[in-house]
């Protein structure tokens, strides 16, 4: 505690971004990272009201395979959202090769994203890339616990759809923990 009359300097942008976030969306990010160990990170962008899911591959994905993956993913998402009656506002996939690792980023608007779509996307990734897809080693989770995580994800996505005041956040794993930070 400081003395009366003294003031603490205001935090800089880098200080603010380094502060762990503990708001209502933390549960969503933790649930996504627990339920889907293939997801390396989840980012929420307030300006576009969208999520970015990041996946890592243990290979250098060629331009041709990258284009084929984007096409498969887009067709899968479009088919799923058509079946569920949702309209996609934002869908983008970026593939970046960094040496022997490929970083795949998928951007989706929160308004049309569902837990079911996440399952479809992750199934496509697992089937397409197999053991080249980096999967975090998590303890075995029982089937009923997975179902509970899926319900939580859907409920929290619904909460996020209704909230436009959520700050931009990023969540990732580090040493067996999920960390969520303001961006």
Write the SSE topology.
Layout: H1 13-17, H2 26-35, E1 41-45, E2 50-57, H3 63-84, E3 91-98, E4 101-109, H4 115-129, H5 143-162, E5 169-174, E6 177-182
Antiparallel strand pairs: 1-2, 1-5, 2-4, 3-4, 5-6
Helix pairs in contact: 2-5, 3-4
Give the SSE string.
Answer: HHEEHEEHHEE
Distance between the termini: 27 Å
Q: Approximately what portion of the residues adopt beta-strand conformation?
A: 15-25%
Helix and strand content put the structural class at: alpha+beta
Unreliable segments of 5+ consecutive residues: 1-22
Q: Helix coverage percent of residues?
A: 25-40%
What's the number of domains? 1
Number of strands: 6
**Mean pLDDT over the residues:** 84
Number of helices: 5
Give a structural overview.
- The protein is of the alpha+beta class and 183 residues long.
- It has one domain (43-182).
- Helix content is 39%, strand content 23%.
- The protein has a six-stranded antiparallel β-sheet with strand order 3-4-2-1-5-6, covered by helices on one side.
- Residues 1-22 have low confidence and may be disordered.
Structure keywords:
disordered N terminus; 183 residues; 6 strands; alpha+beta; globular
In short:
With 183 residues, this protein is an alpha+beta fold.
